[in-house]
Amino acid sequence: MSEGVTPTGPQTPLQQAGRVSAGVFSLIIISVIAFFTLDEVTARFSVIAVSALIVLLTQPAAKLVLFERAPWLGYLFDALLVAAFVFSTVWFYRVKADLWTGFYIATPMNIAGGLLGVAAIILLTIRAWGWSLVIMALSFVAFGFAGPYLPSILKHFGTNMADFMQIVWYSFDGVFGRTTGLVADNVLIFLIFGAVLERTGAGESLIHISTALTGRIRGGAAHAAIVASAVFGMMSGSVAANIAGTGVFTIPMIKRQGFSANFAGAVETAASSGGQLTPPIMAAAVFIMADLVGMPFAMVIAAAALPALFKYIGLFAQVYAEAIRLDIKPMAKEELPVLTARDWLNSLLVFLPIVMLMITFLMGKSPATAGLVGVLTAIGAGFVLNPDFRREPKHIWDALVAGGISSAQIMLAVAVIGVVLAVINETGVAIRFATAISGWGEDYLIMALILAMFGALILGMGLPTLPAYLIIAIMIAPAIIKAGVLPLAAHMFVLYYAVYSSIVPPIAYGCYVAAPIAGGNPLQTAFVALRISIVGLLVPYIFVYSPSLLLVAGEFSWSELAITVLRLLAAIWMFATSLGRADPMLGRIVLGQSGVRFVIGLGAMIPIPMIYIPALILTLVAGLFSRRLGAAKPA
């Protein structure tokens, strides 16, 4: 949400109309998947138009700080936006036939129509997501027009307003391009799915069960929060939205067990970010990735499994080490929730819809159909298993409204990404960028990967997962593929850093959501989140050099997988005890020993036998040494 929008206060009639529109939008999405096939051009334009209307109504200009002294100017501004979009709609459909035949001719009127449509979408995207995405898009637009005047490395033929409008508005490469269709067809139903799951009571049941299962471990409340945030994070299209939704429950729970405010916020942020990388849904990015790499969805989901597993093992280990350092004991027996048959039955609120969704996938159905099955199963499970949900059918409507609003916001972001992609295709900058990075990769692949990592972190800052991945996949993934990386590994690599941009300073937008809930400092929370996410930040390098971790057919080796698993386990343990400054057998450890363990952990990560074999041996020696010293300590 844009900072200028007032999030509280009574709903105006227009906002109420926006909520109704959002609920109807969700019903239309469900109905189209279940019963209809639409003309592709009409479908893409309609979904963008409806999304613009929903954002305009639910976040009216009259509520912006800019118009707080004169709300009537806000309503006038919105009326002008509506008029501009209607004008652009008229001209879009006037030239619709020409779009198919390729006989589009620029005229002053249709140029004006396209310009007004793009301007309306950009202004509404600022309300939905703030300035980050729009600034990036406008930078690319400026790059497109300034081509002839740029330095030689960036110089290109440039564009003019007529050509720009053709590629951005009146073609299938820009706002209404293939990416818009792909997201509308496959992703929106999963945003509705996540909203429905949240309102069936699935979240409370999951936190309750997770706390009971992990409470006997030191730092158990934080472990329970990781599980809950991971499950709901994989269904959310926004790290910030997931933190806001689950963090209000999990962060106070972590603090009550004795962890600091900054650490509690960091755990929630790291877990919610990691949820975007967790199969089978991966914040719906899995469907875009499968399409871009030309692989079955099931194969991409399988490839994501082991990296996600080790990412979470690393996070659990960091929390455990922190609990040892702070001498946080397991939860007292009387504090542990007592699980009943009803609790286990309620767990089906989470797992039954996901299982049914996966079964539908494995039957060969489309992602949209699988998402629809998940939505219907979640609603059915809520009615059968949750009496409150059954007594209050309004929860279904609330879920549809929330899913519709999320869908509208995502579609506007994708529309703006379409502007960027059109400029990229027209100028050839992605090819030039790929050539520059692959030049390093021919001799120094690690340098190409580091450049790609920083590029992904910078481009992804402040963006929700899906738009961040889309732009980075077009700009950067081809570069490291050209440098010799497998396509699936390359796309997984950039997705990881697109997601982790949410915890990287100075933007670290996920931490700016978590810190106020925790009562901590956003920047300090970001640095703690980076520390405890070290395995997740490094695991992409592991699967690039050891693709067997992705279970990729044709590049798979059991021996490579076994060695990679050992290396990761050693690194996880060394990093946890080093950065947490604590060992289970020794308690707190000194700075020098912490530094040695960090070096050993890095050595285990490096895919060179002469380095990782000694690191594995030293990890074993350190474990035996700690065990012996710990046993010798007086009770």
UniProtKB/TrEMBL annotation:
Coiled coil ranges (UniProt) are none
Q: Where in the cell is it found?
A: Cell inner membrane
One GO molecular-function entry? transmembrane transporter activity
Entry-linked InterPro entries: DctM, TRAP_DctM-Dct_fused
Cell inner membrane among keywords: yes
Membrane topology, from the record: Multi-pass membrane protein
TM ranges are 20-38, 45-66, 72-93, 105-126, 132-154, 175-197, 281-306, 344-363, 369-387, 399-424, 444-461, 468-489, 495-515, 527-544, 556-577, 598-625
Any single GO CC term annotated in Swiss-Prot or TrEMBL for this entry:
plasma membrane
Start and end residues of each TRAP C4-dicarboxylate transport system permease DctM subunit domain: 118-553
Main localization (coarse): membrane
Give the UniProt keywords, A-Z. Cell inner membrane, Cell membrane, Membrane, Transmembrane, Transmembrane helix, Transport
Describe the task this protein carries out. Part of the tripartite ATP-independent periplasmic (TRAP) transport system.
Could you identify this protein by its name?
A: TRAP transporter, 4TM/12TM fusion protein
| Organism annotation | Lentibacter algarum
Q: What is the lineage of its organism?
A: Bacteria, Pseudomonadati, Pseudomonadota, Alphaproteobacteria, Rhodobacterales
